[in-house]
Amino acid sequence: MDKLTVAKRIISAAVGFSVSKIVYSVVENNVSASSAVDRAAIAAGTYVLGAIAADASRNYTDAKIDEIVAWYQETKEKFQS
Fold first, then answer.
1. What is the mean pLDDT of residues 55-65?
2. How far apart are CA 23 and CA 75, in angstroms?
3. What gap in Å lies between CA 61 and CA 34, rounded to an integer?
4. Residue 1: pLDDT band with limits 50, 70, 90
5. Alpha helices, H only, 1-81
6. Are 43 and 35 in contact (CB under 8 A)?
7. Distance CA 72, CA 26 (A)
8. Which has more pLDDT, 1 or 25?
């Protein structure tokens, strides 16, 4: 596994965790459950929303990292020539 892949995984994990935490906090502060069924439905929905948000943030973060690496390589080549 190369350094770029390791960096992407570490950053994606941190971003994914953060986004999932935000989704959980938003749901927790804005949705009330009056029964066990409500709590189960809210928990399942929160999990799914967190997973969707984490996947989207991972895709976005990976794309931005790729842009930064491409910019760095282009800049490096300009100064070396």
1. 94
2. 38
3. 38
4. confident
5. 3-30, 36-80
6. no
7. 37
8. 25
Q: Are 23 and 56 in contact (CB under 8 A)?
A: no
| Structure-token pair, residue 65 | 């990292």
From residue 77, how far is each of 4, 43, 61, 72, 81 by CA, in Å? Answer: 19, 50, 24, 9, 6
The token pair at 36 is: 């066990």
The per-type count for the chain, helices as H runs and strands as E runs, is 2, 0
Q: Are 19 and 53 in contact (CB under 8 A)?
A: yes
Rounded Cα gap, residues 46 and 27, in angstroms:
7
